[in-house]
Amino acid sequence: DASDIEKGTYPHFMLKEIDEQPLVIRNIIAKYRNEEGEIELSQDIRDAILASDRIYIIAAGTSYHAGLIGKQFIERFAKIPVEVHVASEFSYNMPLLSENPFFIYISQSGETADSRAVLVQTNEMGYKALTITNVPGSTLSREADYTLLLHAGPEIAVASTKAYTAQLAVLAILSADIAYSKGLEIGFDLTQELGIIASAMEALCGDKEEMEQIAREYLATTRNCFFIGRSLDFYVGLEGALKLKEISYIQAEGFAGGELKHGTIALIENGTPVIALATQEYVNLGIRGNVKEVVARGANPCIISMEGLEMEGDRYVLPAVNEALTPLVSVIPLQLISYYAALHRECDVDKPRNLAKSVTVE
Ligand code: G6P
């Protein structure tokens, strides 16, 4: 029950939940490891996924953004094609399905009506489904064939933080497990890398003064803000923009670096904040080029890069983690910057206007 959960010494649930992320990741490693210390999911889930030729991820909001990254994990590690769909669109705009589809519903609450409506449909069609949720016994969990829990503890703040990184960790674990059961190598030890990620998260959560400073510097009075990135960084930018919109009411949008020139760059004015993520070596030069393009039009750039890829003028450098898993770490400063931007602007951080924690009507 939400009313039993205490904020403790924290001024807001959101800040508490941001800080809980290293613990949640460690908890997830422990829950999904077998006695030999290896990642292991139930054979039922494996068999169902291995029997399918295409995975359809259905979700809304932040969970949809986790799904976009989950697609990258599954395709890269397990080599199964994945489509990601916004639940509310899927029901009346259903794509042509493959011969043996498998459905993954991602939902923190397990109660989102838009997602449930699709699950009812795919159940009627006789397709197997897995729900990835934080709430055992939730509607989506009960109505799907399989469930993977996030083990993140109750999330109270409307803006989702720890559930997002927990979703990414569980999706990475699922992808690795399917890869192993197909005899594929993923090229690194996932439990070890998740441990490194938990430590990196801790370091970032310990750097709040810097995040507050960035928020004050870039977002105290701005009307809008853009997030740019390429590849995985693009998807994290979408989530960063959503966080900022939800709690600070700043008009924020995330864009793929290369797509800027096809329209959005028209919006850049003198002083427009542009938060650029640079955590992927193979697109580092590309995103740096995009930063130059917006700076030439007057933008105020805030480059968040990763150790090893940093360049002069970067505003913040993230501790190095495995390149395939950077979203688990790069989202933390975006969560914190949004939090402090909302504080500066005196917004109700935990209960933003017009939003509900879970939307149980279609
Ligand atoms: C609501 C919340 C969002 C959340 C979305 C999906 O709109 O305000 O923060 O991402 O629902 O929720 P779910 O529980 O399905 O992940």
TrEMBL record:
Task: Please provide one cellular component term from the Gene Ontology annotations of this protein.
Answer: cytosol
> Which GO molecular function, any one, fits this protein according to its record?
glutamine-fructose-6-phosphate transaminase (isomerizing) activity
Q: Where's it mainly located?
A: cytoplasm
- Domain annotation SIS: ranges: 45-184, 214-352
What is the E.C. number?
2.6.1.16
Please state the span of the N-terminal signal peptide per the UniProt entry: none
Could you tell me the keywords of this UniProt record? Aminotransferase, Cytoplasm, Glutamine amidotransferase, Repeat, Transferase
**Its catalytic activity?**
D-fructose 6-phosphate + L-glutamine = D-glucosamine 6-phosphate + L-glutamate
GO terms classed as biological process? carbohydrate metabolic process; fructose 6-phosphate metabolic process; protein N-linked glycosylation; UDP-N-acetylglucosamine metabolic process
Q: What does the record give as the active site?
A: K357 (for fru-6p isomerization activity)
* Subunit field text: Homodimer.
The job of this chain, per UniProt, is described as: Catalyzes the first step in hexosamine metabolism, converting fructose-6P into glucosamine-6P using glutamine as a nitrogen source.
Q: What is this protein identified as?
A: Glutamine--fructose-6-phosphate aminotransferase [isomerizing]
The lineage, from the top, is: Bacteria, Bacillati, Bacillota, Bacilli, Bacillales
Full-protein positions shown: 239 to 600 of 600
